[in-house]
Amino acid sequence: LNEDMVASSTLTTDQGKIYKPSTWEGDPPIGHHRKGILKFNSINPKPKFIVLKIENVGGIAERSFKWIF
Asked: How many Å apart are CA 6 and CA 21, to the nearest integer?
């Protein structure tokens, strides 16, 4: 997994606003398993839900994760 996590990721709110991460704090782009933290700026007002999309990592076109508040 040698992709740039900041370039590959977006966060979308229930209102359709798209945010790019500000930083990746974690494993460097080597190895099969990577762990770390994608950091985003604060989202105001608080959305009803957010969707994290990670594109073109590990041969998968898109991975999508949704959190409902």
From this structure: 6
Quote the CA–CA distance of 11 and 33 in Å, as a whole number. 22
CA distance 16 to 2: 29
61 φ, ψ to 5°? -60, -45
Q: What are phi and psi of 34, to 5 degrees?
A: -120, 145
**pLDDT tens by residue, 1-44:** 788 999 999 999 999 999 999 999 999 888 778 899 999 999 99
Cα 62 from chain centroid (whole Å): 11
State the number of CA atoms in the 13 A half-sphere of 18 facing the CB.
Answer: 5
- Do residues 12 and 21 make contact, with C-beta atoms less than 8 angstroms apart? no
